[in-house]
């Protein structure tokens, strides 16, 4: 008997892998056109980002930030919302964290400072997501449009505020460095093989966030209501779900997770608020949510992939001058293209193969 729908293993594993392979094949062609060997380039990238312990440490550091932005986009997607504002929400999360640090880093212990910073970053990120969520729920303003606009507003607001936070006489567009008591403990202190890298306990926070997300989405009544809202708002409404409240709550949680992404970047690495510190992490979260199919394991693997592209791409561009760093922005775009806009490109072929196998 022929099936008309793909099984979960096909949509969750086979299609993302085929899409990723397609993106990598196009990338290999581009590298070949640049005059370099795709196979040798892939080996350099893999060794630099995965095999080398210090390189792996950097990969996991980047992945820790991407997990939070990927989760932020995924929670909104589960409610049928496309939150493109994770970049701005992460930016405001960094502001909340910084204000808490500037006020209390000289008086509180690390046991209080780091939780306070996390709370402040989550609240500021959630606050920045509230208005787009409210406008979507109460006024019908599309969340895609409002979150894009809020990214630009956040950038302009932060440009103004950071100038106010610059210590007198300092020309660097950044706040002062936080006291060492506010720095996140680095894993290299416990595992010397990781080297002197910024990988910190934020990695374990990211793993915990993935686990909590997986349990809440798949094992709780609220997670069921969230997914029902995303699948069919009318049916969810008749089942007793308050759609407006669900949309606002989903956006608040999404913004809070995006805000928390700033903790790894600031407290784990720079230890001060700098201009444009998100560096596109919020937009990468969109690709991670799409490629990972909003599943915790998929989100983690996608985050590691993008972390590896950044770390391995940096070293590859140093060893192969013909391959500029911008090439890996292009590769990220290809992954977004194949896993997002063209995510079902291979669905008909896979469906035919499955039906042919069953028939045989």
UniProtKB/TrEMBL annotation:
Main location: membrane
Domain of life: Bacteria
Keywords: Cell membrane, Membrane, Transmembrane, Transmembrane helix
Membrane-spanning residues: 12-35, 55-76, 88-104, 110-131, 143-163, 201-222, 243-266, 272-290, 297-314, 329-351
GO molecular function: transmembrane transporter activity
Subcellular location: Cell membrane
Protein name: ABC transporter permease
Membrane topology: Multi-pass membrane protein
GO CC terms in record: plasma membrane
Keyword Cell membrane: yes
Pfam family membership, one: BPD_transp_2
